[in-house]
Amino acid sequence: MSHSWLQRKRKGELIELAQRANVPDADTLLKDDLVAALELALEGNESTFAKQRVFSEYYGRSSPIKRERSSPEAFTATATRTRRQTLNKISDSPPELASTPDKPAPVSRALARTPREVTSAVRRVSERVHEVTPKVTPKVAAPHIPTPRVAEVDIPASPAQLAEIADESFQVVKEKATELWDRTHIDEWKEWLRETASSVSAIQTLILITEATALQWNTLADTHYLTNTPVAAGRSFELRIPNLTKLAGSGWWAPATLWSVTNWALPLLFSYFFNLTLRTNTKHKSSRNQYTIDPFTFNIAKAILAYSAYNGAYYMYTTAENTVLAQELGWGPFSQESVATVRDNILGGYYGIQIGSVVGLLVSLYDAALKK
């Protein structure tokens, strides 16, 4: 048989036959795959390769027409799972296997092949046919125009249809609103603000900003800028702005400097050198539990300085007329007027400063407990 004739060939001879039969990638195939590809190529192009001398022995052994002429009776071969073959006469075979003058009885050699040979051969023949077949540009289908939903509504519309249309409209509006909300990135900013504000440094900074804003708002006295009196309403509207001319005198700079020294400059200096967080967790040192500025020491120093500067201490003295008078004390190089300005204009006064220090102490202790 032709299959055994090809199997007896060496691989070099099979490669030469495959090149003559135009089998693609013959050099990369194994021997079994090469035999299967050659069989498919020779069977599909018998009219072309039967005239060549190198394939004459192949077609002389396997041509179904010669077997029909030499055999007195036509048989069909049905391969079973064993190596035996069962021959059936055409009269006993089903109609689809019977031979006609135009269609000889098929003898399938593909049944004798392994699944690997059949799969590889079919794949390579398909690739060969795909290369030879001219490419046809597919027709572009016309775009589908969706039918409006309103056309499906009965007239008059039923309550169920109206409810369905209302629900669809609500879903569309909801999707648009969600898309617009995502474009604003409000959720991302909210999460960033929440993460930033959830720290001891952020709370301490907020306390200092509150004190500074109240001091500057009350120190820079506002001045009249514009008055608008509508005729119809009968009400006057006054526009006042801070008197920025006070920035040129000591009346603003002295209280601002005093507050800066007592409320954050000196406390920062003390808390930097007396930093208790550097001595904690000696077994497992980590920068996560350490601060450059100790918040606990900062608030203790702030409370002590506020007590020494703004507690409203007086000293008593007697005049020449034996009159006892009381006078407020200053603080260091700052006069009593500057001390009184800071104490009277900060939100809550002296007690407001001490409350801010207590809040800072509690927050620092709570943060240290959480990190243990």
TrEMBL record:
It comes from the Eukaryota. The keyword RNA-binding does not apply. InterPro entries: Put_GTT3 (IPR038872). Residues 66-117 are annotated as: Disordered. GO terms for cellular component: membrane. The keyword Disulfide bond does not apply. Keywords: Membrane, Transmembrane, Transmembrane helix. The chain crosses the membrane at residues 252-275, 296-317, 351-370. This is Uncharacterized protein. It comes from Pseudopithomyces chartarum.
